[in-house]
Design a protein that fits this description.
This protein is α+β, with helices and mostly antiparallel strands. Helix content is 31%, strand content 29%. The protein is globular and about 40 Å long. The chain starts with 13 loop residues before the first strand and ends with a helix.
Length: 154
């Protein structure tokens, strides 16, 4: 499936969060929210991306959005990652990558000659009407925060 674009309806989803709660598209209906898909907990790029959001958390919350990190890691892995870096936002477990598939960000990758599938580092801003407002595709960790802030201000 190809990556969803601005204007598309956000897919229905339900995922377990690191705090023991369940987050679903239904529970977020009427809210503006951000799902940022990242490859793996506690890796250099993902840690840099997560910590840049943490370090500018008031800038993010001042926009009124609710932000979630999404990866195929387990809830247990998310609990450790969030605690280790004192992340102020919830991490959602997409263990079977169904949500990443639905958003079109579960892709074929290559690293050091090895082929595998994983999350493309992509962020979706979803409006209160359930439609995707902005897509930040294949972002670099160091540029993510500024691109997200620009999208949220638009």
């Amino acid at each position: 499936m190809s990556r969803l674009q601005a204007g598309d309806p956000a897919p229905q989803f339900e995922m377990s969060a690191d705090d023991g709660s369940t987050v679903s598209s239904d529970s977020l209906a009427g809210e503006r929210y951000v799902l940022y898909f990242y490859p793996k907990d506690d890796t250099p790029g993902c840690t840099a991306q997560a910590c840049s959001l943490r370090d500018s958390w008031s800038r993010v919350t001042d926009t009124g959005v609710t932000l979630f990190g999404v990866s195929p890691d387990s809830v247990r892995s998310h609990v450790k990652f969030r605690a280790k870096y004192a992340l102020p936002y919830r991490l959602l477990s997409d263990a079977g990558h169904q949500v990443a598939d639905a958003f079109g960000v579960w892709i074929a990758k290559k690293f050091m000659g090895r082929s595998y599938h994983g999350n493309e580092r992509t962020t979706f801003v979803v409006g209160p009407d359930g439609r995707i407002e902005h897509v930040l595709a294949a972002v670099k960790p160091a540029e993510h925060l500024d691109q997200l802030m620009e999208a949220l201000a638009a």
